[in-house]
Write a structure and sequence with these properties.
The structure is a homodimer. By secondary structure, chain A is an alpha+beta fold. Chain A has helices spanning 15-26, 81-86, 101-109, 207-220, 236-249, 253-258, 273-285, 296-310, 315-333, 345-349, 361-374, 379-388, 401-407, 427-432, 443-446, 453-456, 460-472, 475-479, 481-484, 493-505, 509-513, 547-555; strands at 2-8, 35-41, 44-50, 63-64, 70-78, 119-127, 132-137, 146-149, 155-158, 170-173, 178-181, 186-189, 228-231, 263-268, 288-293, 338-340, 393-395. Helix content of chain A is 35%, strand content 15%. The model of chain A is unreliable at 549-585 (pLDDT under 50). Chain A: It catalyses: L-aspartate + L-glutamine + ATP + H2O = L-asparagine + L-glutamate + AMP + diphosphate + H(+).
């Protein structure tokens, strides 16, 4: 993938403007360290910073149709590009690049082609024949994208906020699953899957269908001409991704070029739970495993750079992004250009601890829908920008369009957490990969509960951040918080500390508005906070706050929800539950 | 190698200062994309951005002695580190990094160990026991280094100017071959080779000794734990480096890890002379050869970024840096972390065309000495910063300390260019590698004259730059040049154009003063301009201006040197000349 920047219809075709666009495009250089390109057509500029993953030799951008009348700058991976090429038999392609199909599909189908793309993408397409343009972002928002408007009437598009915030009068997040056409001058949603209405599905749970859909999602993401690896925290999601990748690697083109040994990566403070858990999985799968240790001070020193890169002041996202940001630099330094990762599973299957409190299957399902729709502001943003800060790409098979359709069509009754029946979080996923004959993972890993991400890297990470913020944000500063930051007022010192840094890099009001806010407990949406009255009193946005819920709900060790703030560590308490007959594939 | 930044004794140990140092250190991130470190001791800060080449797994910096009382941040490669380790048997090393010896040598020898280091380096060593520090830069200035002083009494050290220019009241180039000690508060030259006095040496030319010295210089530079390649323009210097590297690669540790196939790289406009010449050499040596084509527009679009990175407004350096800068990005994108390159040969052997006009061997020799001493402001600066802009390291065997001693000890009578005796430029080097039995290069390549670097990438490159500048710098602007830029006043529109960009990035007067100026013809020093009265009238600083000299001196085709210089737009390589008996190895 890459970094894109487009300035459309700015009524200025001077050298000074060209230099300015080049300068702004360089702010996205980390996303595409390998090469850059700029196509200028009158007062339209399409810039590109390339990370070369497919066809490194000839796939430089912008891309064109045959007669160069259509220009495309794109950040993306189109997994079905070979099939699409076959459907365009009368077209001549200039490169082997997977994104080369876009201009040709547009020629063939006009604006209606976007849903034909299976993959992740953000692109700007300029049709020089009538000076119109089209912008689109992938279904869930795996790739990041912003849109802005200049006083000169120009429309700006950038992969990251920093590409346009200084030059636009107003800007905002480009909504995922949408396209913007210069003809309509407005957004239109092209992504219309059945689950989007939030109606409650009724299909029975078919473990093998779910398994096959996910395997397909992983395998199609192994398309590569360069070395890659897997992010492995040792939890269920990343372990499944690693197990499937390891199993199917041998048959891919990637293995022929880079060997059939899978490289896995884990980050943590020394002695962190994730490091231990990941090592166990890596040993089982036989991956070449790399551990990266960081100190709390390393993390604190990186915070400014993290916020500059990920462009949010959301506390949970910053906490979780920092270790990922540090690890990405190390991974990239080993020559690895992309990794496959487990984001999205917790949203699709209701894996967060607060889902234990879902009052019924309807609420449960609707919350998963809301979570998926918000992913682009949270985990997609984190996974995309923490890795791209170092020119590393993250691929997320759980957010495969087809897989989401399968997983979101299951009657949510099956997803409900029922410990008394042996159903812990994400049980439908665990059971789908419970294969007695050819086990993907040992049972105790397949059914293990794990720390929420920021605790997994080491319990002292969040404590260290809070202590650091408490040293540098005074009580007096907090008194004025609401006056200084009327929107999304920080209500902890940690939040205030991050917000100060964010405002220094992105002082515009538009920037503040791109970041989500509102009440939340343990990553819940504001709506789900209503599930438990006690939650609204707790300000800690991490997974720990839900622990009280977890323990008290099933083990009766804690009587009052007040205790939720008490325990400082999540200790996986549940035993591996025997689940009856495993699936025979 | 890496990027270093140190702030020493700034009387401020606040979090704000730490954040500022981290922020400034990030301006050097391109030099060390792999990891970063900051060591703070009271009000002294040692920051580091690492490009991991030896011991990637554990060599993160700063480096320390056993009890951590001595901290070192270093940008360098110490080729004799294994021998030095053996001389320190009672010391325990924390890492396998080649630079780990520095702290221990200091413990053993105090400030006087610098000349024991065989390699290239810039380092800051902080002795926390008495809060003293020393700073040193390698003999010739292969690594870049700047020093600055703050109003608070602090001393600042940075690999690039951009690390300190905004925070220092005054700053300058750190002189190569010198060290700065906090005890003396003054520079002291540690590099004292025989040639430095510019006395005329009298040793007879021994071709085999010269050959062996250079082979040794190349081989010791093959120390690596990561993939590498060779920059091959097809000229004598880079072709010799490539030939020696491919000959000895099989015997190195590098070959075991990365294969014994050498990768070679060449850049040019499509159809350029270098591309053709390099291909011929690559075919002969059997390297895996990579060609990168750029357009004049690509180059012009990069100029701002080039000037930001290389930190000069010197016209020749910018012309030559741009293709190297573009190529470095492509090389890095292939996973290659360092390249070996041919810089320095023209200075040591008087390879520039203007040396044809040297009036006698004394003048010839002294000019080579002056050229070597100035290398850090020209070709070293270019080679170091154009590559490091993309985290690629350039190694330059011609600037090996021992090799320079051998080459500069030869009676300069042998280096004089004497067409009538078949001695073209750099004849002593060519003859040293003229081996009939096991030829390093085919004779016609070994004795071929080649384009000066900026013409080699394509004749339209310099013309394109001049045209572009002429479009954007008006005659009126030139009228005020002397008032706006009283120091090193630009005398051409091209120079004015570069200067405008430079001043935008580096507005301080100190910054302007770091760049050399003065009269020059075809890369000569100001002193050598006196060799020909007509030269002072020609403002074009490229190699072409000397061509007239060249042709007129031996071919009698042109009557007036200055007139011919303006007429000939292309350098046409001369026929290979017969050189008599070749050396038997």
């Amino acid at each position: 993938m890459c970094g894109i920047l487009a300035v459309l219809g700015c009524s200025d075709d001077s050298q000074a403007k060209r230099v300015r666009v080049l300068e702004l495009s360089r702010r996205l250089k980390h996303r595409g360290p390998d090469w850059s390109g700029l196509h200028q057509y009158g007062d339209n500029y399409l810039a590109h910073q390339r990370l070369a993953i497919v066809d490194p030799a000839s796939g430089d951008q912008p891309l064109y149709n045959e007669d160069k009348s259509i220009v495309v700058t794109v950040n993306g991976e189109i997994y079905n590009h070979e099939e699409l090429r076959k459907q365009l038999s009368n077209h001549t392609f200039r490169t082997e690049c997977d994104c080369d199909v876009i201009a040709h599909l547009y020629e063939e189908h006009g604006e209606g082609f976007v849903d034909m793309l299976d993959g992740i993408f953000s692109f700007v397409l300029l049709d020089t024949r009538d000076n119109s343009f089209l912008v689109a972002r992938d279904a869930i928002g795996v790739t990041s994208l912003y849109i802005g408007y200049g006083l000169d009437g120009s429309v700006w598009i950038a992969s990251e906020l920093k590409g346009l915030n200084d030059d636009c009068e107003h800007f905002e997040t480009f909504p995922p699953g949408h396209l913007y056409s210069s003809k309509d001058r407005e957004f239109r949603r092209w992504y219309n899957p059945p689950w989007f209405s939030e109606a409650i599905p009724s299909a029975p749970y078919d473990p093998l269908a779910l398994r096959n859909a996910f395997e397909k999602a992983v395998v199609k993401r192994l398309m590569t001409d360069v070395p890659f690896g897997v992010l492995l925290s040792g939890g269920l999601d990343s372990s499944l991704v690693a197990a499937i990748t390891a199993r199917h690697l041998a048959g891919t083109k990637a293995a022929k070029q880079w060997g059939a040994k899978l490289h896995s990566f884990c980050v943590g403070l020394k002695g962190a739970p994730d490091l231990r858990a990941a090592k166990e999985v890596a040993d089982y799968l036989g991956t070449v495993h790399h551990e990266f240790h960081f100190t709390v001070q390393d993390g604190i020193d990186a915070i400014e750079d993290v916020i500059y890169h990920i462009e949010t002041y959301d506390v949970t996202t910053i906490r979780a992004s920092t270790p990922m940001f540090l690890m990405s630099r190390k991974i990239k330094s080993l020559g690895v250009k992309w990794v496959i990762s487990g984001e999205g599973s917790d949203e699709i299957f209701g894996g967060y601890l607060y889902f234990h409190k879902a009052p019924n299957k309807e609420e449960f399902h609707q919350e998963t829908c809301r979570k998926i729709k918000a992913l682009h502001k949270y985990d997609c943003l984190r996974a995309n920008k923490s890795t791209y800060a170092w020119g590393l790409e993250a691929r997320v098979p759980f957010l495969d369009k087809e897989f989401i359709n399968v997983a979101m069509n299951i009657d949510p009754e099956y997803k409900l957490i029922k410990p008394e029946e042996g159903r812990i979080e994400k049980w439908v996923l665990r059971k789908a990969f419970d294969d007695e004959e050819h086990p993907y993972l040992p049972k105790h890993i397949l059914y293990r509960q794990k720390e929420q991400f920021s605790d997994g890297v080491g319990y002292s990470w969040i404590d260290g951040l809070k202590a650091h913020a408490a040293k540098h944000v005074t009580d007096k500063m907090m008194l004025n918080a609401a006056n200084i930051f009327p929107h999304n007022t920080p209500n902890t010192k940690e939040a205030y500390y991050y917000r100060m840094i964010f405002e220094r890099f992105f002082p515009q009001n538009s920037a503040t508005l791109t970041v989500p806010g509102g009440a939340s407990v343990a990553c819940s949406t504001a709506k789900a906070v209503e599930w438990d009255a006690a939650w609204s009193n707790n300000l800690d946005p991490s997974g720990r706050a839900a622990l009280g819920v977890h323990n008290s709900a099933y083990e009766n060790q804690i009587n009052s929800a007040k205790a939720a703030a008490g325990p400082e560590k999540i200790i996986p308490k549940m035993e591996v539950s025997p689940l009856g007959v495993a699936i025979q594939s």
